[in-house]
Design brief:
By secondary structure, the chain is an alpha+beta fold. The protein contains 2 helices and 2 strands. It has helices at 6-14, 42-46; strands at 23-27, 34-36. A two-stranded antiparallel ribbon has the order 1-2. The radius of gyration is 10 Å and the shape is flat. The structure holds zinc ion.
């Protein structure tokens, strides 16, 4: 199964580049991704 990196996920989900997404200051302890303005991290996007 292909694993997406966070940049790909943001392009797919939000149709914008990851640098355009505002991130919170929280890091997900599971995937080590920053949690973005939607409260999503790579775990959520991978579902
Ligand atoms: Zn996560």
């Amino acid at each position: 199964m292909k694993k997406y990196n966070s940049e790909e996920i943001h392009k797919i989900l939000y149709k914008k580049e990851s640098h355009e997404v505002k991130y919170s200051n929280y890091i997900c302890p599971i995937c080590k991704s920053r949690i973005d303005e939607f409260g999503l991290c790579a775990c959520d996007a991978a579902r």
